[in-house]
């Protein structure tokens, strides 16, 4: 039998050294006896025991699990953790992966209890302000179920580093002076003042944020068990809140409505409305378009933009994901490709009117993404209502139709791009050219064909600009 | 009016917002700082729970409950006779810091009634966040409610100071919003969400981009104030998650408010409906379910008696029993009683052993609920699945609530 005495209740260093040497010496778990003898000098280095010669490795997950579970109040924790180390050392390297193993499960449960207690300490510590001799200190009393103060103190340091504070518990206290953390012996509840100037405000907030129409006491107590209540200033309000909730709700339901007649909605002033027949008026009308069902799932109408007297008009298919979010045409990946091609063709985008055949984004939801869906004939047909008015307003000399949907919208027939691209088609006193949509380039698999198609697109754009 | 009374009024006015989350933002610490206070470390902390079972993580108040809008479901609508109050910027700052230093809260969730116009209101709300961050070095969590169509510069500033931004969609359809909240429009709200998403994505993707709401955006919808079906609500949520990358959609069962409008139902919507929608929300996001698989009755509503996953399983008995030792993950996720974490544990465990029933009880799983739907090394449900009374056996017994 090997007896091991640790220096304090969370002596992880001591446990680790002892566990390593016991495993190397081949001492099985049932032949170890673990105990704690608190020395007055907390956290002194373990007494002279020479580190064992030789070492072995266990998984990082096991070390982390042990560092957590060792804080549990269960007196068997040291032995249980050693039993895990023993098994890992004896060949079961992945012992932790088997959550259904009884030993693994028991240790996991210890660690879970420690984590919960740690979390509750972070939640339920309540500082009280103590002002004396021009200095302000914050003091709290907390009663943890496990030995969590040592490992949890750094959290409070990170949060309240610029304050001076003490957290007192029955077995240990932690003090921060603004520069260093000091751990001391346990304390008593009476060591903390019993009021604070803001506690009445906090209780008032707690009471006011509660909705009496949805009383769920068990939901509250499962997360904030009664054992914590005596140290929570707001908990004093709970019994009254529960008692009065039914009556308060009944009053709300029964009291007849005494609201005055609804005040009229402020009307939009004429000055803010755009002039009819202008681009602005058209865009404003289109913003509320519900001519087809696409508006339901899209964010907004993405109308055309550019000078009303532009000589060149570009028509794409429909807004994509980015265009839908931003409310502007050709700002996503295809738009960036188009911008590059326009610049290379010597065309200044700010002089061009850019729009789409369909004004709402059509897509299929795929988890957190929206996948582009091609608009059907009916949607293109219906949306011509807007495109026709845009064309009538701008009356461009040359219109470039990017892709088959745009070609269908303007020419009213099925167009095979490869057969008709790059040649002038006379239409309503202007010229029309059909070419590919820039998103087509983005879908090409290899760089070589992408470069070739890009050059062809730039060529088409340059030619069309020449017709202006 | 004294500060205590203002706090009571403006907290009361804010309590219909369900969100109190303070997680998922960037990490901040006060260690090594000369002044200021606060930290954030990923996981939010619920510092208290009210008797309504809701977590209190943030100081959730309105800057003012005075409002020029007249949304009938809202206690603060302009035609309500509720008592009005207004905080100064300094008062909110003082309360936030005071509560924070006492470890009562993780930070602030500030919202406001619309005063004068959207930009003016937004400027006031942003002013509080600016003062907390710039003057007092506050490193805690800030959630700001935004207002559709507020000036883009104000929005940029809001995103710079806030961890999370939100805008409530309130009702699932355009028609309901038109009827109950005439000054609001779904279009404005969606446009606003779209703009926020672009900025959040940009800030996340590019190091040089300005900080913008690292904890993302969320929204809330009121359930039971109008006649929208569960299907309509779930469809709306699916759209919002997909289109705007929302972190959360909160569902808030309509509950009666003081001085309520006669247009509204007089009684609270059942809280269990809200609960079912949260369950469905999780099934849609993490369990691979689709909206059409969940809304079961002809009106498009889910059962209030049994949870949506169990309801689905009872409707699809031919796909069960599922062998825990061989079924793929997607199928394990569909077994009533198995959660995402449990499924991961079972997948890891079964590489080491054949799963048996006592493994399940050691993992503290609801064995009675699971049994009809699973096969393990030592269990097969036999004909249980075909039993007409199965639903009665696995459904939870109705329990009469007891007042404390």
Descriptive key words:
heterodimer, A: about 475 residues, alpha/beta, five-stranded mixed beta sheet, 16 helices, 14 strands, about 15% strand, B: about 400 residues, TIM Barrel, 2 domains, six-stranded parallel beta sheet, two-stranded antiparallel sheet, about 35% helix, about 10% strand
Topology, please?
The complex is a heterodimer of chains A (468) and B (404).
Chain A: E1 2-6, H1 12-24, E2 32-36, H2 60-69, H3 77-89, H4 102-124, E3 128-132, E4 135-141, H5 149-159, E5 164-168, E6 172-176, E7 181-185, H6 199-209, H7 217-223, H8 238-254, H9 279-286, E8 312-316, H10 321-326, H11 333-344, E9 352-356, E10 363-366, E11 369-372, H12 377-394, E12 398-402, H13 404-411, H14 417-420, E13 425-427, E14 430-435, H15 438-443, H16 447-467
Parallel strand pairs in A: 1-2, 4-5, 8-9, 8-12, 12-14
Antiparallel strand pairs in A: 3-4, 5-6, 6-7, 10-11, 13-14
Helix pairs in contact in A: 1-3, 2-4, 3-4, 12-13
Chain B: H1 3-12, E1 48-49, E2 55-56, E3 58-62, H2 89-101, E4 107-111, H3 118-135, E5 141-145, H4 152-161, E6 164-166, H5 174-180, H6 186-205, E7 217-223, H7 230-244, E8 248-253, H8 271-286, H9 291-294, H10 308-315, E9 322-323, H11 329-332, H12 340-349, H13 357-362, H14 367-370, E10 374-375, H15 390-394
Parallel strand pairs in B: 3-4, 4-5, 5-6, 6-7, 7-8, 9-10
Antiparallel strand pairs in B: 1-2
DSSP strand count of chain A: 14
| Biggest β-sheet: strands ordered side by side in the sheet of chain B | 3-4-5-6-7-8
Question: How far is the first residue's CA from the last residue's CA of chain A?
Answer: 99 Å
Number of helices of chain B: 15
Structural class of chain B: alpha/beta
What is the element string of chain A, with H for helices and E for strands?
EHEHHHEEHEEEHHHHEHHEEEHEHHEEHH
- Radius of gyration of chain A, in Å, reads 37 Å
Radius of gyration of chain B: 24 Å
- Strand proportion of chain B: 5-15%
| Parts with pLDDT < 50 across at least 5 consecutive residues of chain B | none
CATH topology of the largest domain in chain B: TIM Barrel
| Helix coverage percent of chain A | 40-55%
- Name of the CATH homologous superfamily of the largest domain in chain A: Uracil-DNA glycosylase-like domain
């Amino acid at each position: 039998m090997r007896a091991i005495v640790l220096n304090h209740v969370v002596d992880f260093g001591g446990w680790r050294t002892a566990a390593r040497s016991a495993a190397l010496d081949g001492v099985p778990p049932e032949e170890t006896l673990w105990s704690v003898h608190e020395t007055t000098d907390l956290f002194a280095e373990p007494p002279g025991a020479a580190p064992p010669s030789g070492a072995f490795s266990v998984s990082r997950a096991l070390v982390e699990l042990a560092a957590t579970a060792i804080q549990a109040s269960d007196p068997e924790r040291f032995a249980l953790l050693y039993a895990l180390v023993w098994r890992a050392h004896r060949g079961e390297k992945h012992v932790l992966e088997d959550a259904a193993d009884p030993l693994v499960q028991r240790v996991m449960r210890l660690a879970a209890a420690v984590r919960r207690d740690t979390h509750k300490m972070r939640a339920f510590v309540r500082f009280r302000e103590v002002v004396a001799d021009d200095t302000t200190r914050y003091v709290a009393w907390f009663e943890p179920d496990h030995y969590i103060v040592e490992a949890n103190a750094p959290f409070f340091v990170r949060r309240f580093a610029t304050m001076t504070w003490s957290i007192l518990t029955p077995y240990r206290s932690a003090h921060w002076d603004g520069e260093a953390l000091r751990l001391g012996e346990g304390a008593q509840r009476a060591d903390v003042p019993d009021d604070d100037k803001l506690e009445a405000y906090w209780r008032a907030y707690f009471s006011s944020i509660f909705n009496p129409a949805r009383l769920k006491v068990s939901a509250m107590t499962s997360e904030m068990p009664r054992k914590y209540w005596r140290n929570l200033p707001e908990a004093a309000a709970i019994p009254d809140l529960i008692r009065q909730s039914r009556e308060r709700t009944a009053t709300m339901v029964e009291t007849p409505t005494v609201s005055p007649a609804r005040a009229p909605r402020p009307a939009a002033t004429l000055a803010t409305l755009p002039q009819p027949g202008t681009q602005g008026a058209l865009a404003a009308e289109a913003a509320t378009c519900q001519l087809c069902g696409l508006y339901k799932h899209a964010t907004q109408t993405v109308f055309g933009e550019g000078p009303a007297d532009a000589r060149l008009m570009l028509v794409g298919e429909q807004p994509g994901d980015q265009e839908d979010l931003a409310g502007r045409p050709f700002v996503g990946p295809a738009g960036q490709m188009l911008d590059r091609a326009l610049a290379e063709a010597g065309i200044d985008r700010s002089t061009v009117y850019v729009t789409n055949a369909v004004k709402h984004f059509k897509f299929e939801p795929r988890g957190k993404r929206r996948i582009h869906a091609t608009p059907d004939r009916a949607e293109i047909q219906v949306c011509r209502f807007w495109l026709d008015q845009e064309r009538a307003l701008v009356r461009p000399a040359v219109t470039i139709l990017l892709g088959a949907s745009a070609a269908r919208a303007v020419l009213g027939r099925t167009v095979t791009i490869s057969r008709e691209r790059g040649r002038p088609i006379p239409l309503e006193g202007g010229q029309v050219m059909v070419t590919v949509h820039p998103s087509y380039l983005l879908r090409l698999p290899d760089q070589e064909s992408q470069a070739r198609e890009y050059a062809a697109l730039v060529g088409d754009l340059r030619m069309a600009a020449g017709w202006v | 009016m004294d500060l205590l009374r203002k706090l009571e009024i403006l907290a009361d006015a804010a309590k219909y917002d369900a969100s109190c989350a303070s997680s998922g933002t960037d990490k901040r610490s006060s260690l090594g700082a000369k002044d200021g206070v606060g930290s954030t470390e990923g996981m939010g902390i619920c510092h208290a729970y009210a008797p309504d079972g809701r977590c209190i993580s943030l100081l959730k108040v309105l800057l003012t409950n005075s409002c020029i809008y007249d949304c009938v479901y809202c206690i603060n609508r302009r035609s309500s006779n509720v008592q009005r109050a207004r905080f100064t910027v300094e008062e909110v700052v003082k309360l936030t810091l005071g509560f924070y230093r006492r470890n009562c809260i993780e930070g602030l969730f500030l919202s406001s009634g619309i005063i004068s116009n959207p930009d003016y209101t937004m400027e006031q709300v942003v002013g509080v966040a600016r003062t907390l961050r710039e003057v007092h070095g506050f490193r805690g969590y800030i959630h700001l409610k935004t207002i559709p169509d507020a000036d883009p510069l104000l929005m940029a500033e809001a995103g710079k100071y806030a961890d999370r931004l939100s805008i409530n969609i309130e009702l699932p359809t355009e028609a309901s919003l038109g009827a109950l909240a005439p000054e609001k429009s779904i279009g404005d709200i969606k446009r606003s969400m779209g703009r926020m998403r672009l900025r959040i994505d940009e800030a996340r993707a590019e190091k040089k981009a300005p900080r913008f709401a690292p904890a993302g955006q969320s929204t809330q919808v009121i359930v039971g104030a109008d006649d929208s079906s569960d299907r309509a609500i779930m469809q709306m949520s699916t759209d919002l998650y997909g289109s705007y990358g929302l972190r959360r959609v909160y569902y808030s069962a309509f509950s009666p408010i003081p001085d309520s409008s006669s247009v509204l139902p007089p009684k609270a919507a059942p809280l269990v409906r809200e609960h079912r929608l949260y369950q469905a929300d999780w099934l849609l996001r993490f369990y691979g379910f689709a909206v059409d698989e969940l809304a079961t009755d002809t009106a498009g509503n889910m059962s209030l008696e049994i949870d949506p996953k169990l309801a689905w399983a009872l409707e699809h008995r031919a796909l069960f029993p599922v062998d825990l030792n061989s079924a793929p993950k997607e199928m394990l996720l569909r077994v009533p009683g198995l959660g995402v974490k449990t499924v991961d544990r079972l997948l890891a465990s079964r590489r080491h052993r054949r799963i048996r029933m006592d493994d399940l009880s050691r993992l503290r799983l609801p064995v009675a609920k699971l049994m009809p739907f699973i096969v393990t090394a030592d269990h097969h449900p036999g004909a249980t699945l075909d039993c007409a009374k199965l639903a009665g056996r696995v459904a939870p017994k109705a329990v009469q609530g007891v007042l404390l």
